[in-house]
Amino acid sequence: MTLKPLAEMATEVLTTADARDKTTLSRQHAASWFAARADGSLPAVGHASPPDRPARPAEPQLVDPRDVPKRKPGTEAGRIAILHAVAHIELNAVDLHWDVIARFAQHDMPAGFYDDWVRAADDESKHFNLVSDELEKLGAHYGALPAHAGMWRAAEDTADDLMGRLAVVPMVLEARGLDVTPGMIALFEKAGADSAVAALETIYAEEVSHVAYGSKWFHFLCGRQNIDPKPTFHKLVRKYFPGGTKPPFNEEKRAEAGLPPDFYWPLSEHTQKN
Ligand SMILES: [Fe+2]
Ligand SMILES: [Fe+2]
């Protein structure tokens, strides 16, 4: 079977609006890619014109983050709101990983770069499905609540800058997920919501590798240009993500993902380490 060029597969996912259709197609394309990679050959990456913004379902309504209704975390409504926000993040992450592949296809990266982002996109698709299943068990669904409108902003700001994209998306935003997920798991544990805990634990375990992929390829690109990774990372995060990073940091998981403290502490402007 001849495989479509990877950048075309990526664009197909990005232009699929329905969330479950998007994750189904994403997982199928990931399986095809890894089946073709099994003999060690590199199928064509090709070129594509990804959309400026990925196609999304008519719902959820996208609103300013200040207008996303807050609910008490100790209530079922609060847990639904948290799961809905996580589902929204996961769907966005599916598109972000395929977008890296489609948008920067001209960069002539080693095969492992494509493997990593296809695997990450596949993980995010699974995460979206897991969290959507949890919402449905609670009588809700993805789309039932308003969601954060600004999620694609980081992708737009870094549409011409692969190193900026890696610095901001996996190494800042996904690393932030490692900081906040343990607290979320504790909240669902307290409520005895076992299957939601299992879903969040799967997400927590797999997100470490996405941050690690970001760090690995960021360092690779710095090495290719013979530039110092740490000041380059600080410069790019200050340029594209001026809000900076906020403690508390999950230093252990960040270290596991190849993010040393001197990368993120200097970006937390208003706080001191001690
Ligand atoms: Fe995820
Ligand atoms: Fe991720």
UniProtKB/TrEMBL annotation:
Family annotation (InterPro entries): DUF455, Ferritin-like_SF, UCP012318
* Compositional bias annotation for Basic and acidic residues: 64-73
SUPFAM superfamilies, A to Z: Ferritin-like
Among the Pfam families in the record, one is DUF455
Superkingdom of the organism of origin = Bacteria
Return the annotated region ranges for Disordered. Answer: 41-73
Protein name, UniProt field: Ferritin-like domain-containing protein
Q: Which organism is this entry from?
A: Palleronia caenipelagi
